[in-house]
Each structure stands twice: as structure tokens, then as C-alpha cells.
Specification:
heterodimer; A: 478 residues; 18 helices; B: 322 residues; five-stranded parallel beta sheet; two-stranded antiparallel sheet; 7 strands; 52% helix
């Protein structure tokens, strides 16, 4: 069931009405309703993988209790290792087995040894990368005594399976979500309206901007050998906007939906394309994943405590692992590596924490210097994303080398006035709302109700008009 | 809470009413799928030649040009999966059926889903593509049709331009002044953009990509062989046909894929001792095409006459049963 489907438009109000009607019966009833709805939501995709989700949930639930009950450090560690091994083992089999087997086989054939290994013809269970990371963060936090284990199985299961975040995040932390689930939620009119506004903006991002850009990006990437450099550059920009709008749009819908149930989820995007350097970009892009890697990989590796070289090594490791998290393909690994390399000059010049504030805060327009920095950062991200989107590395290198050929100075083959108009409106709204949690958060709040409703109706009509079909969210594949 | 739900309901009321209206309206309008199905059922006992296939056959083969009593169930983007199931669905009633044209073009062995048209096929024929038509789509047209498609159908219905042809889902460029006869309707004239090198290249690239990324060939071939078996078991002769295409488009298709495709079809024809008529490079003029891979009205008549002649000479059939 996709967020942008009629199925979800029927599912959500039904769950919402039942949930708030039963609100008087306390948190246990609320959690149970949400858990059952979440399992139904997941089963609508493929009920066979429900058992995997339940197994993973139960494993972490009991491991956490065992860790907390352990009387010796060794016993505690044993349960931690068991849980991490099984979690990563499941993820490895479903997501990475074929990649390792094929890469190993190719490496051997390069040495003259031809061995045929078994490859698996299996589907990647939806959301496995996300719910595995949920579970891992919980287990590690318990091991480090940051939190106490959750004793209520329904509450813990809901932490892992809550449907707005189940399939593509944000990757929640037990310290943030569990305390909310352990309290009864009370209906807040302003919170619910805010949630709806965020859902509306998320749908606009996904159905109007991402899908429209994706349509052209697909044409350009699929026909790249016969297109000019200028068209390919346009394709790369379209894909960069597509992936941002798709995933940030999904996150907005997830956060807005959770807010309708009185639950706050972690923010996942904070206008990354308005960043002034790549370090700032990564503090604003897929925040829940970046901070996960920071807390559970970068810091355990030593973080920035050692010398510069040590810091660079750790940075490269987390970027490569983060790339690999996205999928079993060399393109993702190189994308991660390239982004790690982007950060190194900033670390060397100790400028990686220069831009911690919001660009042009309190001002209508950025300065020329800020604009220039944002443009440079944007194009660095765009070139990285070409590798991310390409079919393989040679496709990516050919794509980028064609961009830098003389055909860059010709007119692009694809010129869509409507899309440029939509992008213009989109960028202006995002820019004006950059200091808020999401672009629409403050827009029109002081307007007369009729004008505000007219604006909402315009967005809904644009969504209906431009939505071609129910297209999957890109991040479902990771 | 009640205030919130009340306001949301008021906000959504126009959309709910519009959705209801669309749902009811979409159930009333007629598609070419329904016209073809109804036409087939009305004369099913006398049909001797059944033409299956995708848009190349749907527009390119006119059943009226055959001496045998012919009917076309070919449809835009129709895959072999549907050709087979649609034919088998009616096979018991097709008492006079002697021949089935199976169209095998460059991409035929590489796709089985027809995108949203899977739902159109379900509504008209009851064929559920790999049991993937969702329950909601089964009961709601609004779910089954993409919104843009649904609104275009309604717009067309209101325009009254589609009254003569009697179906609102036909492609742009179709001759709306002729009604659907024996399941066939055609393109009028030649679309200059559709014949341009840019379009030919884009179209060929789309098919090249489909063939490159598809992993369905083995399953489709197996399903097709079963189809051929079932037809031959009833003494019905399948004839494998590749339809004509415009040269500049042909040149842009991947040579390796083209060669492999021809080998696959020839192997199939050898395996079952079937006729394979390859008209991919048939010497038709530019004026016979609507676009680079579809024949127009004139081209379809020319090509259908060629097929009729070959059918007569190969199988010595010349008597019209009607």
C-alpha cells in the first residue's frame, strides 16, 4: 500500500477514526490499534514477509531483556553479538548475498578460475534496511545502558512496525519514540491540521515534482548514449530533484501521518539543496540515517578524537558503508566514496562545521557568496547522484564525460516549460519555508481562511492534474 | 476532534462527490475492449481466422480483407499473455476456427504486463493478469484507471467526437469517422512527427531498453508453446507473423537483439512445424505508415491483402464460409 494510493486514502481515515474513538481506553488500546493497522499495512505488500518482520522484532525484544538481565559483561556481549549477527545476517542474505557471490565469482574469473556459485532469486523484503536499523539502534542503546529495555511487547513492536515509518523511515531511536508510545496520546486540533498540511506538501513533492522530474530523468538516463552534454546535465539535475522530492516527500507524508496520531517522528530532510558545503549537505540529507551512522559507527570507530588522518579514515568508512546500505551495487559504493572525498578538504581545512546555521537566516535572499556556495554544493551533489542513478560505473563515467564535452554548449533536447514553471514555484516555496520543519508549516497561517483553503485546493488540484499513476517511492528499494 | 473531522469532511466533500461522479460515469462509457468482446461474441460461431497481437496487429491487419471469416482481438500494448488467455477463454465457442495469427514482433517475447491496460482487460474480458489486479481495482474503476486516463475518457465522451467509432479509449490519430468492424479500427493518414528520425530513435530505444532489461523471455516462450499446443490439439493452425516497420526505425533497433529474436521465432516455428511469415522488412511506402511502427488505413489494407493471398496459397483456403 503506497502513501500515494487510493488504498491508503481509505486505510488512513478508517484507522484514524478508530484510533481516536478508542483514545479514552488508554495507551494500550491506542498502541494495539496502531500495531494491528501497521501489520495489515505491511501485509498488503506481501504477507509472506510479515513473519520475517515479526521474527526480527521478537529477536530484538528478547535480546534486549536478556542483555539487561545479564549479570556478567561477557553474557551481555554474547546477547548483543547474537542479535547483531542475526539481524545483519538476514539483511545480508536478502540484500547482499547475490552481490557478494557475483563479485567474488568475477574476481575469481579474473584470476582464471571459473566457478559457478548459486545465486538467489528472491525479493528484497520491503523496509528491511529500515526496520533492521531500528532494532540495532535499540539493542546497542540497551547494551550501552542508555535506555532500559521495553517490557511491553506491543509497545516495542509498534516502535519497530509503526506504519508511517516502517517501509522507508525515518530511522527512529528508542530514546525518542518509545517514551511517546508509553504515554496516552491526546488529540490536538492544531497538531492534526499541521499533520495534514505536511502530508499535502509531501504529496505535492512526490506526485508533482518527483514523478514529473523522474519521467524526464528516466528518458535521459535510458537514452544517454545518444544525447548531448547539455541534455545529460539536465537529466542529472532532474534526477537530483526527483530523488530529493521523492524521499523528502515520503518523509513529509510519514511525519504528517504520525502527527495525525499524536506522534512526532524524527525529521529526515532539512533543505539539503540550500547547503553551502558538502558537510552541511550531509547534516541535512537523510538525517536519521546520517546520525545513525554517526552514533553507531563513526563514534565507536573513534570519531574525531584521533588525528586528522584517523578522522578522514573514519569519515570514508561511514560514507562507503552508507553507500553500501543503499544497495548491493558498485555504483552505490562509489557514490558513498565520492561523497566521503568531498568532505576531506573540509576536514583538512577544519571547515567541516562552518555552516551550522540556516542559510540567510531572517533574510529574504542569500548573499552572492552564499548563492555561489549553494550552487557549487548542489552540482557536487548532482555529479554524485549520477553515479547513484547510473546502471553501472561505466554508464556513470560515460554520462559524466559526455556532460563535459563540447555538446554541453548546445540547447538541451528536452525542454518542458510546465516542469520549469513547477520547479520555480517549488523552489520558491521551499526557500521561503526553509526555517520551518517543512515548507508549508508557516505559509498562509495568517491568511484569511478562504484564501488559505484556496491555496490548499490549488495544491490538491495540481496533485490530481499532474499525478500520472501510483509510482513507487524510490527509497522503497533500499 | 469532531470539529477536525467535520472540517476535513467539508474540505474533502467536493473531491468525494467528484470521485463518486467519476466512478459512476466510468462504468457507463464504452471502451474498445468491450466493443471487441461484444463483436466477438455476436459472431463467434462463424469465425475462421482469429487475429491476436499488439497495436502493430490491431491497426495493421484488417479482418475484412480476408476470404475467411476473420476477427481481430489484437489490442494496443496487448501481450502474448492476454492473446493466449483471451483466445482460450472463447475456444470452446469458436467452433469454426481454423487459423490463429500470433504476432511476434521485436518486443513480443519480452513483456507480459500491459500497465494500466491490465485493468481494462480485466473489466472487459475478466482476465486477471497473474492475479495481480487489486481487489480495490476490481470493484472501483477509479482505482483501475489512472486519473489522467479516466478524465481523458470522460472529456472524449463529452466531446461526442467518439460516437461514430463507439469507443473512447482509442489512440490519438485514429480515424474517428469509421466504426469498429470485425474488431478493427485504423489510423488515418501519416503523422509526420511519428515518422521523424527523432521519434524513430526514441521509439527504437524504448524497445531496445525493454528487451535489454526484461527477464521474462523464458517464461513467455514457455507460455506461448503451451498456447500453440492447445491450439494444435484442436486442429487449429497457428501462424507466426512479424508485422512491417519503417526502415529508419528498424535501423535503430539493436542488431544483436533483432538477430536473437528472429532465431527464437524460427526455432519455435521449426519445433512445431509452423509457418513463420516475417514481414518486418516488407517493402511498403512511407505513406502506408501512420508512424514508424504502425500501419495506417491504406497500409493495413495492403498488408492484409498480402496475408490473405499467402494464407490462400499456403493452406489452399479460398472459400468464404459466410
Amino acid at each position: 500500500m503506497l502513501f500515494n494510493s487510493i488504498d491508503f486514502a481509505i486505510f488512513l481515515p478508517i484507522v484514524l477514526i478508530i484510533y481516536w474513538t478508542m483514545a479514552g481506553r488508554g495507551k494500550q488500546a491506542q498502541n494495539l490499534i496502531l500495531l494491528c493497522s501497521s501489520l495489515f499495512f505491511y501485509a498488503c505488500w506481501d504477507w509472506r514477509f510479515l513473519s520475517l518482520l515479526i521474527f526480527s522484532t521478537l529477536l530484538d525484544f528478547y535480546s534486549a531483556i536478556k542483555i539487561s538481565q545479564a549479570t556478567t559483561r561477557t553474557y551481555k556481549k554474547w546477547w548483543l553479538i547474537l542479535s547483531i549477527t542475526i539481524n545483519l545476517g538476514i539483511l545480508g542474505v536478502f540484500k547482499y548475498y547475490n552481490f557478494f557471490v557475483i563479485s567474488f565469482s568475477e574476481a575469481l574469473s579474473g584470476l582464471g578460475l571459473h566457478i559457478n556459485f548459486w545465486t538467489l532469486n528472491i525479493l528484497l523484503p520491503l523496509g528491511i534496511s529500515f526496520y533492521t536499523f531500528h532494532g540495532l539502534s535499540y539493542i546497542i542503546d540497551i547494551y550501552k545502558d542508555k535506555i532500559l529495555p521495553e517490557k511491553n511487547i506491543i509497545c516495542y513492536s509498534l516502535f519497530v512496525c509503526f506504519f508511517p515509518l516502517l517501509v522507508a523511515g525515518p530511522i527512529e531511536r528508542a530514546t525518542h519514540l518509545l517514551p511517546q508510545l508509553n504515554k496516552p496520546r491526546r488529540f490536538s486540533y492544531s497538531g492534526a491540521v499541521d499533520g495534514l498540511r505536511q502530508i499535502l506538501w509531501g504529496l505535492f513533492k512526490k506526485l508533482v515534482i518527483a514523478d514529473k522530474c523522474g519521467y524526464y530523468a528516466d528518458i535521459i538516463f535510458n537514452n544517454s548514449p545518444s544525447l548531448s552534454g547539455s541534455t545529460l546535465l539536465l537529466g542529472a539535475i532532474f534526477f537530483s530533484i526527483q530523488i530529493y522530492s521523492d524521499f523528502a516527500g515520503y518523509s513529509d507524508i510519514a511525519l504528517g501521518t504520525a502527527r495525525l496520531f499524536g506522534i512526532d517522528l524524527l525529521r529526515n530532510f532539512a533543505n539539503p539543496y540550500f547547503s553551502r558545503d558538502m558537510a552541511e549537505f550531509w547534516r541535512r540529507w537523510h538525517i536519521s540515517l546520517s546520525t545513525w551512522f554517526r552514533d553507531y559507527l563513526y563514534i565507536p570507530l573513534g570519531g574525531s578524537k584521533g588525528g586528522t588522518l584517523f578522522k578522514i579514515r573514519n569519515t570514508l568508512i561511514i560514507f562507503i558503508v552508507s553507500g553500501f546500505w543503499h544497495g548491493a551495487n558498485w555504483t552505490f559504493i562509489f557514490w558513498g566514496l565520492l561523497n566521503g572525498l568531498y568532505i576531506i578538504p573540509l576536514i583538512l581545512s577544519k571547515k567541516n562545521r562552518n555552516n551550522l546555521d540556516i542559510v540567510a537566516q531572517g533574510k529574504l535572499l542569500p548573499s552572492l557568496k552564499e548563492l555561489f556556495s549553494m550552487m557549487i554544493t548542489f552540482f557536487l551533489a548532482v555529479f554524485g547522484l549520477v553515479i547513484f542513478r547510473a546502471e553501472n560505473l561505466s554508464h556513470a563515467f560515460h554520462f559524466i564525460s559526455t556532460i563535459f564535452s563540447s555538446s554541453l554548449f548546445t540547447l538541451p533536447t528536452i525542454r518542458s516549460g510546465v516542469l520549469f514553471l513547477l520547479l520555480g514555484i517549488f523552489i520558491i516555496v521551499e526557500w521561503l519555508g526553509r526555517e520551518q520543519q517543512y515548507a508549508l508549516a508557516a505559509l498562509g497561517l495568517r491568511w484569511p481562511a478562504t484564501l488559505r483553503w484556496a491555496a490548499y485546493y490549488s495544491i490538491v488540484l495540481a496533485i490530481i492534474y499532474f499525478a500520472v499513476a501510483e509510482k513507487k517511492f524510490l527509497y522503497f528499494q533500499f | 476532534m469532531q470539529v477536525f473531522f467535520k472540517r476535513v469532511l467539508i474540505f474533502l466533500l467536493p473531491f468525494i462527490l467528484a470521485a463518486l461522479f467519476l466512478e459512476i460515469y466510468l462504468r457507463q462509457i464504452t471502451t474498445s475492449y468491450q466493443v471487441k468482446e461484444n463483436g466477438l461474441l455476436s459472431g463467434i460461431k462463424n469465425i475462421e481466422l482469429l487475429i491476436t497481437g499488439n497495436s502493430h496487429a490491431a491497426f495493421g491487419i484488417d479482418p475484412a480483407q480476408f476470404n475467411l471469416n476473420a476477427y481481430t482481438i489484437a489490442q494496443v500494448n496487448q501481450s502474448l499473455y492476454f492473446d493466449k488467455r483471451l483466445t482460450l477463454k472463447h475456444l470452446d465457442s469458436l467452433k469454426a476456427l481454423k487459423f490463429v495469427f500470433i504476432i511476434l514482433d521485436f518486443h513480443s517475447l519480452y513483456f507480459s504486463s500491459q500497465d494500466y491496460r491490465d485493468n481494462l482487460s480485466y473489466y472487459a474480458y475478466g482476465i486477471n493478469y497473474k492475479n495481480r489486479v487489486s481487489n480495490l481495482a476490481k470493484i472501483s474503476r477509479l482505482k483501475g484507471y489512472p486519473l489522467k486516463v479516466a478524465s481523458s475518457y470522460i472529456k472524449r465522451d463529452w466531446s461526442k467526437k467518439y460516437t461514430k467509432i463507439g469507443a473512447v479509449d482509442v489512440e490519438d490519430g485514429v480515424d474517428l469517422n469509421r466504426s469498429i468492424i470485425k474488431g478493427w479500427y485504423s489510423y488515418a493518414g501519416t503523422d509526420q512527427y511519428g515518422m521523424s528520425s527523432n521519434y524513430c530513435e526514441t521509439r527504437a530505444n524504448d524497445f531496445n531498453l525493454l528487451v535489454r532489461v526484461s527477464k521474462e523471455k523464458t517464461a513467455i516462450l514457455k507460455d506461448l508453446e503451451d498456447f500453440i499446443h492447445q491450439l494444435m490439439a484442436r486442429n487449429i493452425t497457428p501462424v507466426l507473423i512479424t508485422t512491417p516497420s519503417y526502415e529508419p526505425y528498424r535501423k535503430k533497433l539493436n542488431k544483436k537483439f533483432l538477430g536473437q529474436n528472429e532465431t527464437d521465432i524460427r526455432n519455435l516455428s521449426l519445433k512445431f512445424n509452423l509457418e513463420y511469415w516475417n514481414y518486418f522488412e516488407a517493402p511498403l511506402s512511407e505513406n502506408d505508415f501512420y508512424d514508424c511502427d504502425h500501419l495506417n488505413y491504406n497500409g493495413a489494407i495492403k498488408f492484409s491483402k498480402l496475408l490473405n493471398q499467402r494464407l490462400e496459397t499456403t493452406f489452399k483456403v479460398s472459400t468464404h464460409s459466410n
